[in-house]
TrEMBL record:
Listed transmembrane segments: 57-84
CDD domains the UniProt entry points to: GT_LH
Record has Membrane as a keyword: yes
Annotated protein name in UniProt: Uncharacterized protein
Keyword annotations of the record: Membrane, Transmembrane, Transmembrane helix
Length: 607
């Protein structure tokens, strides 16, 4: 029976015409490859079946395609394969100059403000910890957004509060910038920080954060500029579209979630790889661990996607990018759908930017000094879509980049055991904790961050801190002490446990009342406000200050958006209104010093 079956399938030996596989040099590359005849009867049957069936499948596809063309359901092959119907196009310098790209200003220095925003809608001890960790280190008093849920979309249910995070930030930035014409202390060059309100602690002063913001932007600008220059042939005039400059930083995640199921599509496959060392986690770098844990399986991945725990940028750049996000929100709302992730939504804005940059790089690589070749057939459909919209005047470049280095306020999800509190000058403990975390090779932590060494503190009370001898949370793989900690390590209940039990591990905990009081009193005491930090910016001095409103209120403020009857308002809120929830007095839990409520003495000089 087996013989008859083989005969029917044509597997008995018979004369046949030579084909290209039989030519002498074919397959020399892999002379050890076994033929199907060596793999047994089942393999022989499968091999012959597939070899016979492939032509039948191809013919069937062609017949169906011709049938659809003849019926008019498909007008041409270009309908199925869009790039087939598109010819390459020369884009000259005049068209490139008309593209909607940011206008970059040369550094000019000057005085600027730093503002902190937190989306929060209810008092809580964890909100209080976030706020007072900032105030104790000399940061400006935060402004609360969406406190009464004004930006929630009820029809979007729980998702509405997530999207409100971005919509409320846009509203407050627009309201503040609108006051610039009336002499308010605000400009598009001011820095704004949006941080999650209930699970972030600051641990280093604002001078460090601002310096790192500028350093990260410079590193990104250098990478992109070198990449673009390398694409243009030598001896050819410069490509008319300047390399992007970074002015917004978003914290990173190791897992690229959520994806399109959130209603937004970040197109992460088009994003650049991390610039961090390819072996930073050893041989398993960028490999998913084969474990059930939904977070820890990403532990060895270099972060290159978005975590929206912190977004930081200039007021003007943030306004523009958030307006783009709002356009997407409104388009989705009109279609009757929902978005449920602010993280994925802002990542989609970045994804569009990366698609645009990919198109720009393809043009730069064909630039001959007068024109570039726009070749749709060489692009993915996503890049083609962005390119077509850009040629019609749409803007996609917003100067957004990522904190690949974990230097600002990195997420601890998927890095649950990568960091802990150490005294940076205690080399023995640093080595011990690095080994415990699993860092390959020698410890990567090298003492006090240079920003602390070269920084002249604006705060008298912080000048006394011996930074090398206080416990600071440090990531041992990155070898960095971040400005803050984002407690989003949710597995095994770590988030809530650490928010409660790690509080007394922070360096400022024993002195928090003193630090908070000193900074609040200084707002009124000083005749002239001191800068948070002074930096050299292209040969010009740039100085950052807290907003003038801090000196008047000395309290957290709540942003109340404009409505039909009144303009936007900024209302102070008492500490009890921010911190008190439950029966335990918030100050007992926060300070744990038996000294009662927070008292800020009026040491103002009556002027």
């Amino acid at each position: 029976m087996a013989g008859r079956l083989l005969s029917n399938l044509g597997l008995r030996s018979r004369a046949r015409s030579p084909v290209y596989q039989d030519l002498p040099d074919f397959g020399v590359r892999d002379s050890q490859e076994h033929t199907p005849a060596q793999k047994g009867l089942v393999s022989l049957l499968a091999y012959r079946f597939m070899k016979s069936a492939r032509w039948s499948i191809l013919v069937l596809v062609v017949v169906i395609g011709l049938a659809y063309l003849s019926t008019g359901h498909i007008s041409s092959a270009a309908t199925v394969f869009p790039a087939w119907g598109m010819k390459s196009e020369a884009i000259d310098s005049s068209k490139l100059h008309k593209l909607n790209v940011p206008v970059y200003k040369d550094p000019a220095g000057g005085n600027r403000r730093l503002r902190i925003f937190m989306p929060a809608d209810t008092p809580h001890i964890n909100l209080c910890k976030s706020i007072l960790s900032a105030v104790g280190l000399g940061y400006p008093l935060p402004m609360l957004l969406n406190w009464k849920g004004e930006f929630n979309r009820p029809e979007w249910h729980f998702a509405g509060s997530h999207i409100a995070k971005l919509e409320s930030l846009l509203a407050v930035i627009e309201a503040l910038l609108a006051g610039a014409d009336d002499g308010a202390d605000v400009s598009e060059d001011d820095l704004a920080i949006l941080v999650d309100a209930y699970d972030i602690w600051f641990q280093l002063p604002p001078s460090v954060l601002i310096q790192r913001f500028h350093d990260l932007n410079k590193q990104a600008d250098d990478r992109v500029r070198e990449q673009w220059r390398s694409l243009v042939p030598q001896g050819v005039a410069d490509f008319p579209v300047p390399p992007p400059r970074q002015s917004i930083i978003v914290t990173t995640a190791k897992d690229c979630e959520p994806g399109s199921e959130s209603g937004s599509n970040p197109h992460y496959e088009h994003w650049p790889q991390s610039p961090m060392p390819a072996d930073m986690y050893g041989n398993d770098t960028d490999k998913l661990l084969n474990i059930w844990d939904p977070a820890r399986k990403y532990r060895r991945i270099r972060p290159r996607c978005v975590n929206s725990g912190m977004i930081m940028g200039t007021m003007g750049a943030l306004r523009d990018s958030l307006q783009r996000a709002k356009q997407k929100i409104e388009a989705v709302a009109l279609s009757g759908r929902q978005l449920w992730s602010d993280q994925a939504l802002y990542a989609e804005v970045i994804g569009d930017q990366e698609l645009w940059r990919e198109w720009m790089r393809s043009l730069a690589s064909t630039w001959d000094g007068s024109a570039a070749s726009h070749i749709p057939g060489n692009m993915s459909s996503e890049v083609r879509s962005v390119a077509n919209a850009a040629l019609q005047g749409a803007r996609f470049e917003y100067g957004i980049g990522l904190d690949y280095n974990f230097t600002t306020i990195p997420a601890t999800c998927s890095s649950e055991e990568d960091g802990y509190f150490v005294k940076l000058n205690d080399a023995r403990d640093v080595a011990k904790q690095s080994t415990k975390a699993g860092v390959p090779g020698d410890p990567r932590v090298s003492g006090i961050p240079h920003e602390l060494i070269k920084s002249v503190s604006h705060s008298d009370v912080l000048k006394e801190v011996a930074w090398g001898y206080v416990p600071l949370y440090t990531d041992f793989f990155f070898g960095v002490t971040p400005v803050g900690i984002h407690h989003n390590a949710y597995v095994d209940g770590l988030k809530s446990w650490r928010l409660k039990h790690w509080w007394d591990l922070t360096w400022f905990y024993p002195r928090l009342r003193e630090l908070v009081t000193a900074h609040l009193e200084a707002l009124e005491r000083d005749d002239e406000p001191r800068p948070l930090v002074e930096l050299d910016e292209g040969g010009h001095k740039a100085a950052y200050f807290a907003p003038l409103a801090d000196r008047r209120a000395k309290k957290v403020t709540v942003f109340e958006p404009a409505d039909k009857s009144r303009p936007a308002r900024f209302e102070p809120i008492h500490w009890d209104g921010v911190c008190q929830k439950g029966s335990t007095p918030w100050y007992d839990e926060l300070f744990d010093d038996d000294e009662g409520p927070l008292q800020v003495h009026d040491k103002s000089r009556h002027r």
